[in-house]
Amino acid sequence: MSEHESAMRRAAADVGGAARPVSHGRSGHESIRVTVARSDSDASRAFDVRRHEPMMVLDLLLAIQREHDPSIGFRFSCRVAMCGTCTLRLDGTTVLACQTPVPVDRDEVRLEPMAGLPVVRDLIVDTTAFWEQWARVTPYLVPVEGLDEPPRTRPDSPERRLIDPSLDCITCGACYSSCGIAADGRDFLGPAALTRAMVLIADGRDAAAEQRLEAVSAAEGVDRCHYIYGCTAACPKGLDPAGAIRRLRRWRRKGPPPSPAVPAADALPPTGETPEELA
User: Fold this and answer.
1) Taking the domain 21-124, which CATH number applies?
2) For residue 8, is pLDDT > 70?
3) DSSP per residue over 1-40, as a string?
4) Count of CB atoms within 10 A of residue 151's CB?
5) Pairing of strands 31-36, 108-112
């Protein structure tokens, strides 16, 4: 293949086929050295990748796959921080590859798979343990039976204000990877599952609050958390799993917040209570 053909293929691989400006970064270098953890001991681990702007960690991996080693293994899908599949560690910190910019002041970065889960290949991990813990808290709403009208939660209600800050979990596992207690084979539900349990226990439309509270109060539940706060620091959506675990601990002692499901026809106006009072 001629040099001209190679250049054309690289340009076509970029989004929209448009060439991107080459960046030297603050380090003044046109390329960055990327060291990737590989499951094959004979596979290449270090790659020099040409910088461009904007450039995310996922762009590094796609450039390596396209220009250096097509056998490198990693996951991605949506590229807009919604699917949660591209989680990995950048220089030891768990991030979403698609939304994390390549550090402009670095000449070299290290990419590794998520911590606490078995490696399938390169940056791909087996997330079975994560999903098993997630399933143990019954992560879906169990409707209240026997109501003539479907229940409704007002958007401006204290209950809703309590739930909303923890609702946007994309199950990426960043909190799980950053937790020093959660790992495959360990007896801890993990911050993602516990946050989901808190959301559903607080939801007055749900009928399984007592069942979930029993699950999170067991030996592998909230007491296994040591409040390292790695989960909160790593969450790409800005959620606070450590705060959710603290709230579950309070509810274990005092019981869940009183928020019975109210049929739509009889929905009450806001009470003026704060989320803290409900918690």
Assistant:
1) 3.10.20.30
2) no
3) --HHHHHHHHHHHSGGG----B--TTTT-SEEEEEE--SS
4) 18
5) parallel
Token representation of residue 197: 């349990």
Between the alpha carbon of residue 72 and those of residues 40, 99, 121, 212, the distances in Å are 10, 20, 8, 40
DSSP 206-228: BS-HHHHHHHHTSTTSGGG----
Counting Cα atoms < 13 Å in the Cβ hemisphere of 66 gives: 17
The two tokens of residue 93 are: 């910190």
User: Do 168 and 237 contact (CB within 8 A), yes or no?
Assistant: yes
Residue-by-residue DSSP string for 140-174: S--BPSS-SS-B---TTSHHHHHHGGG-------H
Residue 216: closest CA among 203, 206, 201, 227? 201
The CA distance from 255 to 38, in Å, is: 48
Q: Residue 270 has which token pair?
A: 């806001």
Domains of the chain: which residue ranges? 21-124, 128-278
Instruction: Determine phi and psi for 101, rounding to 5 degrees.
Output: -65, 150
The hierarchical CATH code for the domain 128-278 is 1.10.1060.10
At residue 16, does pLDDT exceed 60? no
Say how far apart CA 224 and CA 20 lie, in whole Å: 48
What does the pLDDT read at residue 157?
85
